[in-house]
């Protein structure tokens, strides 16, 4: 087997696998994304006997035609079945990974005292030390409590 199906499996091209049993046979239905366009999904149907030997298969891929043909999408499903004891790697959904754009970013700088801040181009703190954040109408009002 070439490494292409293994690479596709590890790159999360496998969408889903289901395997209903019917009598002594096991049927496996897998969905694999196309390599060139991930919006295209190929369905792979496989029939296995009691011992797990491949009996029949059919799939939508145009590369696999005829009774002896196989394609990489079929190989991806078979490789996933072989790895089913560990854990099957599926393609990620849009809600599977947590979005982090709305998280607060960590502060990495060390704190700086106000007197060392360069707030003006000339380096002076003139006017900054006398800063009163009160609204302009209430700055000189004696009844306005400034909590200072």
Question: What's the arrangement of secondary structure elements?
Answer:
Layout: H1 4-10, E1 14-18, E2 21-22, E3 25-33, E4 41-48, E5 54-59, H2 72-82
Antiparallel strand pairs: 1-3, 2-3, 3-4, 4-5
Helix pairs in contact: 1-2
Instruction: Return the string of H and E elements.
Output: HEEEEEH
Radius of gyration (Å): 33 Å
Percent helix: 10-25%
Average pLDDT number: 78
Strand percent estimate: 15-25%
Number of strands: 5
First-last Cα distance: 79 Å
The major pleated sheet works out as: 5 strands, antiparallel
What characteristic shape results from the CA principal axes?
Answer: rod-shaped
Give the low-confidence spans.
Answer: none
SS summary, helix count: 2
Task: Name the structural class.
Answer: alpha+beta
Organism: Paralvinella palmiformis
Protein name: SWIM-type domain-containing protein
């Amino acid at each position: 087997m070439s490494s292409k199906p293994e690479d596709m499996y590890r790159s999360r091209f496998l969408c889903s696998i289901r395997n209903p049993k019917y009598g002594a046979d096991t049927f496996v239905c897998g969905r694999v994304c196309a390599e060139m366009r991930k919006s295209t999904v190929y369905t792979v149907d496989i029939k296995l006997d009691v011992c797990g030997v491949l009996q029949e298969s059919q799939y939508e891929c145009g590369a696999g035609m005829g009774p002896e043909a196989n394609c990489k999408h079929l190989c991806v499903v078979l490789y996933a079945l072989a790895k089913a004891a560990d854990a099957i790697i599926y393609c990620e959904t849009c809600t599977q990974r947590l979005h982090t754009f709305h998280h607060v970013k960590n502060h990495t700088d060390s704190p700086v005292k106000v007197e060392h801040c360069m707030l003006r181009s000339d380096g002076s703190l003139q006017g900054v030390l006398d800063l009163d954040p009160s609204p302009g109408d209430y700055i000189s009002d004696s009844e306005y409590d400034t909590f200072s």
